[in-house]
């Protein structure tokens, strides 16, 4: 293949006339993998493959085999591929939460890409935080980078019905609480919801963040939605490997792709797909590392975008059907047609977004609807504020009709709800007391959880989707309004007000709230306030915020000392000033 002559940064390692001893040392051990000295010395780009698959993170396991197809593509395009592991990020199993490790995976990936002779990188993504952590790192280092999603699992069924990952857990947890199913039936349904390799097949955080990567222009068109076991998944891995070599020559770096407009496009896509509320902190984190400012107004500007993807938890179907209907390109096509995104942004293909998705219309209008025949109006997140927090969000696309009727339809006060706060300090407290009759929880109660933010937990926990006490479940009340300074699973369909910042651990408004206070939620203005007078608030603020558990590991302590709040992405604040660090090769 004819390529223009180009000197890559890896040459700084291999072309050092003064330090042949060092060059020899680098090469000596690479020979262990069967490479020859010429391969490293003839000027080809070295392509890192950031391998996120491992047995601690089953959602990304498919990448262990996909890596070979990436390498085939890299080699055929004239590069050298070197695969290396990333820090495991398994959503369901990492305690106290995988969110604690998003920034750790980010930091380690930055060091690898900066400190080794890597000219461009393939970021393998899948499970929730694997996407934002690697995109954040790519911005900090700013070498050409492309995202390869691993893809969702196949559609899963239980008792002849679609049973989406995560969603099946939250729904059956309620049925278990109401005494409708046994523990064995609960576990059996959970097992059936995971029929193959791949990440969650609902529009949870994983599918959302992979769609976001594609919407940002970081992966090849169609990449996000191809199910993990499909033939096309191997094919796009090969194409991704080929494309990253070209990107290395074109110096198509994240800083050229991750513009403010690209992020606004992604925010529009999150609304249209009914995406996870976790996308909010991840968007802010990725944007801040890219040097882009995203404001609450940017989220509200997308609030009126309708839901056009019929996927759980906001809709009915799962990932296979989404892919067959046209996936992310079909969604982009609708949004472009409606003038809701900017098609001129440059993407990893080297072309504008609009060019990538030209003619990519939905082939299944039950799954991906036309923009003007949506499943629901106003599917974007609603930004809330008031005396309990400066910032929180609510995913209005999952508010059920029954919930709307129960809470938001009082004649003359539509959209306004007042209820009595029942406050829990973290999830242990919630589990210990939720069924305590002395709390008098009824359908006019609002469940509040605090101590679950980045510093309080630490890491910020997915605990705000609290279910009502068993007694209410048995009466058919399956959700109450909830508020919290933590997050909730992207697969949950709970109408929560979450990601509240500042969190109670740093003295945010939830820290002075007490059980019995009346809270007013006004969805017409985006206000959420405790109806407590100023003097009383000032008096309560003199007390210390509720205690948080002590750090159990060195990283927890480092994290707590350096992390910001969810409204600004919960990044390591000191890291934000480092951008484009690949320009300076580290000393040896
Ligand atoms: Fe990993 Fe859902 S738990 S993708
Ligand atoms: Mg999760």
Automatic annotation (TrEMBL):
Enzyme Commission code: 4.2.1.9
Keywords, comma-separated and alphabetical: Iron, Iron-sulfur, Lyase, Metal-binding
Enzyme class: lyase
Gene Ontology molecular function: any one: iron-sulfur cluster binding
Signal peptide range: none
Domain Dihydroxy-acid/6-phosphogluconate dehydratase C-terminal: 367-570
All residue ranges annotated as the Dihydroxy-acid/6-phosphogluconate dehydratase N-terminal domain in the record: 44-356
UniProt entry tagged with the keyword Magnesium: no
Lineage: superkingdom: Bacteria
Similarity comment: family membership: Belongs to the IlvD/Edd family.
Protein name as annotated: Dihydroxy-acid dehydratase
């Amino acid at each position: 293949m004819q390529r223009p002559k180009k000197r890559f940064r890896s040459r700084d390692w291999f072309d050092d006339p003064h330090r042949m001893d060092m060059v020899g040392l680098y090469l000596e051990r690479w020979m262990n993998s069967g490479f020859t000295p010429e391969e490293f010395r003839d000027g080809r780009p070295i392509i890192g493959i950031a391998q996120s698959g491992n047995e601690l993170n089953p959602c990304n396991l498919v990448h262990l085999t996909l890596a070979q197809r990436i390498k085939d593509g890299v080699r055929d395009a004239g590069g050298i591929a070197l695969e290396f592991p990333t820090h495991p990020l398994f959503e369901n199993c990492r305690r106290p939460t995988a969110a604690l490790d998003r920034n750790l995976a980010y930091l380690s990936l930055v060091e690898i890409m900066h400190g080794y002779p890597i000219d461009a990188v393939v970021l393998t993504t899948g499970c929730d935080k694997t996407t934002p952590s690697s995109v954040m790192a790519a911005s900090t280092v700013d070498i050409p980078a492309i995202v390869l999603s691993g893809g969702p699992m196949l559609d899963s069924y239980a008792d002849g019905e679609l049973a989406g990952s995560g969603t099946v857990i939250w729904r059956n947890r309620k049925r278990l609480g109401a005494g409708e199913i046994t523990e064995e039936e609960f576990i059996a349904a959970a097992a059936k919801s995971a029929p193959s390799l791949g990440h969650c097949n609902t529009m949870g955080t994983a599918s959302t963040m992979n769609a976001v990567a594609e919407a940002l222009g970081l992966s090849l068109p169609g990449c996000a939605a191809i199910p993990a076991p499909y033939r096309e998944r191997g094919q796009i891995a090969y194409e991704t490997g080929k494309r990253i070599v070209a990107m290395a020559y074109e110096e198509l770096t994240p800083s050229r792709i991750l513009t403010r407009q690209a992020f606004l496009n992604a925010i529009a896509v999150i609304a249209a797909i009914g995406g996870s509320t976790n996308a909010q902190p991840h968007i802010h984190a990725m944007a801040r590392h890219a040097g882009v400012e995203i404001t609450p107004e940017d989220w509200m500007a997308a609030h009126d975008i309708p839901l056009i993807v019929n996927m759980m938890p906001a809709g009915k179907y799962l990932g296979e059907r989404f892919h067959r209907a046209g996936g992310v390109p079909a969604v982009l096509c609708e949004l472009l047609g409606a003038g809701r995104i900017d098609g001129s942004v440059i993407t990893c293909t080297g072309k504008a977004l609009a060019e990538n998705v030209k003619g990519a219309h939905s082939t299944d209008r039950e799954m991906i609807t036309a923009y003007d025949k949506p499943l629901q109006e106003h599917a974007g997140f609603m930004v809330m504020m008031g005396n309990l927090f400066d910032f929180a969000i609510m995913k209005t696309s999952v508010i059920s009709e029954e919930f709307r009727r129960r809470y938001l339809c009082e004649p003359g006060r539509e959209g306004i709800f007042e209820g009595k706060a029942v406050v829990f300090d973290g999830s242990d407290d919630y589990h210990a007391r939720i069924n305590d009759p002395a709390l008098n929880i009824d359908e006019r109660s609002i469940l509040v959880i605090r101590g679950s933010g980045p510093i309080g937990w630490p890491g910020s926990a997915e605990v705000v989707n609290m279910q009502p006490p068993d007694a209410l479940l048995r009466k058919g009340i399956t959700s109450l309004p909830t508020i919290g300074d933590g997050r909730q699973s992207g697969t949950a369909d709970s109408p929560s007000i979450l990601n509240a910042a500042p969190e109670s651990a740093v003295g945010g408004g939830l820290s002075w709230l007490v059980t019995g206070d009346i809270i007013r939620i006004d969805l017409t203005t985006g206000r959420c306030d405790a109806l407590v007078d100023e003097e009383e608030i000032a008096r309560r603020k003199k007390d210390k915020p509720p205690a948080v558990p002590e750090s159990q590991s060195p990283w927890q302590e480092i994290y707590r000392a350096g992390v910001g709040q969810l409204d600004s992405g919960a990044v390591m604040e000191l890291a934000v000033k480092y951008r484009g660090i690949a320009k300076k090769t580290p000393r040896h």
